[in-house]
Amino acid sequence: MAAPTAASSVSTHEKPRLSFWQIWNMSFGFLGIQFGFALQNANVSRIFETMGANTDDIAFLWLAAPTTGLLVQPIVGYMSDRTWSPRWGRRRPFFLVGAILASLALLVMPNVTALWMAAGMLWIMDSSINISMEPFRALVGDVLPSGQRTTGFAAQTFFIGVGAIVASSLPWMFTNWFDVSNTAGPGQIPLSVKYAFYIGGIVFLLAVLWTVIRTKEYPPEDMKAFEEEKRRTAGFWNGVRESFMGIFNMPKTMKQLAAVQFFSWLALFAMWIYMTPAITSHIYHTTDTTSKLYNEGADWVGVCFSVYNGVSAVFALLLPSIARLTNRRLTHMLCLTAGGLGLISIYFVQDPKMLLLSMVGVGIAWASILSVPYAMLAGALPWNKMGYYMGVFNFFIVIPQMVAGVTLGFFTKNVFHGASVLTLVLGGVSMIISGLLTLRVDDADDVRPAATDEPADTLGYEKLAPANPEV
Questions:
Q1: Which residues lie across from 85 on neighbouring strands?
Q2: Nearest alpha-carbon partner for 185 in 288, 116, 293, 54
Q3: Contact 205/105 with Cβ under 8 angstroms?
Q4: For tag attachment on the chain, is the N or C end more exposed, with fewer CB atoms within 10 Å?
Q5: pLDDT score of 466
Q6: Cβ(278)–Cβ(421) under 8 Å?
Q7: What secondary structure does DSSP assign to 352-420, as a single string?
């Protein structure tokens, strides 16, 4: 997101406190957004392989996702900062447009008939999801007073977890609960996957519509200053230039966290890309996408993804207590180490059920990745440039994804000789490196709680509601 305008900066007047159900309503759209991301993460590699992609080409085909995130998120954030309609508000028009496009993409994706169509639909689907997701981040700051941002973030985390758990498991549920076939002929997507995407498209649109209809946004306090700022910074390229030039002016802590983000997200992207081929070949011992064993393994990957998201949602509640006992740097290092060991352990697993233990470690890391780096960053940023630098910080989620798309296929083919499970091991090593790099971060805001009547918010959520990252 670009630098905040006069109208989008922190208000000098305290916003009214919202009720529990108002916060619930404004966060409910995340359920649909996470349905889209979870179906994408758990099934796109499966679709690519079904359409004939070689294992070492999958990472390159995934490049569409981080590329669109890099371009779409800063631009949509910049545009939504400069939007106001008395009827639709500032963020809700982007929620609605993105939801309509993403829902259509989810309906089309499982009906592709060629690899190039699957790659193109990933680009369209990811772009559309990002259009909806990016303004949700800013809505917390727009609507909630500082004292309720922890609650707002917790509500978003809850819906992220619920959406990911259900959506990731949908193909498995259709097969095991409703006896829907999870196999199909060559070049055909199984019915269980198709039905999962259809449900996802419907849930995405309805969940976002609920937030659009049930959430009230406030107009800029000084409409004249808002309009003057819009005129002064008018132009598409202004938003692009401001967002991308920020990378050269980062505070020291942000530069240190950039290295942490790079290695942790490189590991996550290795998992999202190669989990399906690794599990089906290493544990189920098949690469035949039409076989029953392959599709059982691919369905089980969805279950594994739902488990790590469920662990993350629960473990996130424990993070403040752990950070109080240690500090945020050590907490993040321990969590990332658990995730790295979880990925490495997959190499030694032969019983599919044991993969769930590996996913516990990944879930612990995922909970920390969603919160601790943003909390450490908050103490290093001036309030009047918070949105600006948060847009820049998103680059260090996207750049490692692009690097993964270019390099992981080479490693899988030429170094690991097609053994994609070793790519997961490489991801585990990368996550442990990320944890070690955390120890060198200057976390100026990480102080031990003082003896006051107010409980310390060790993670710093009151300063910043962390964004939900793009994949």
A1: 89
A2: 288
A3: no
A4: C
A5: 40
A6: yes
A7: GGGHHHHHHHHHHHHHHHTTHHHHHHHTTS-GGGHHHHHHHHTHHHHHHHHHHHHHHHHIIIIISTT-H
Distance CA 69, CA 469 (A): 9
Residue pLDDT, tens place only, 180-206: 998 998 899 999 999 999 999 999 999
Burial class of residue 187 (count of CB atoms within 10 Å of its CB; 0-12, 13-18, 19+): middle
Residue 212's alpha-carbon distances to 97, 190, 432, 459, in angstroms, are 11, 34, 40, 30
Alpha-carbon distances of 319 from 208, 257, 323, 466, rounded to whole Å: 29, 18, 6, 14
pLDDT score at 260 = 96
Burial readout 159-184 (b: 16 or more C-beta within 10 A, e: otherwise):
bbbbbbbbbbbbbbbbbeeeebebbb
Within 8 A by CB and 6+ apart from 168, the residues are: 38, 39, 41, 42, 302, 303, 305, 306, 309
Write out the DSSP string of 241-257: HHHHHGGGG--HHHHHH
Q: What are phi and psi of 89, to 5 degrees?
A: 80, -155
Query: pLDDT digit string (tens) for 271-307?
Result: 999 999 999 999 999 989 889 999 999 999 989 998 9
Question: How far is it, in rounded angstroms, from Cα 447 to Cα 145?
Answer: 23
How long a stretch of residues is the chain?
471
- Residue of 299, 123, 290, 105 whose CA lies nearest to 204: 105
Q: How far apart (Å, rounded) are the C-alpha atoms in residues 358 and 343?
A: 6
Q: Rounded to whole angstroms, how far apart are CA atoms 210 and 194?
A: 25
Give yes or no for a contact between 391 and 1, defined as CB atoms under 8 angstroms apart. yes
Rounded distance, CA 139 to CA 374, Å? 17
> Can you read off the two tokens belonging to residue 343?
């990925």
How confident is the model over 222-232, as pLDDT tens digits?
777 777 767 76
pTM above 0.90, yes or no: no
Would you report the helix, strand and coil content of the chain in percent, each value rounded to 5?
Answer: 75, 0, 25
Segment 97-120, tens digit of pLDDT: 999 999 999 999 999 999 999 999
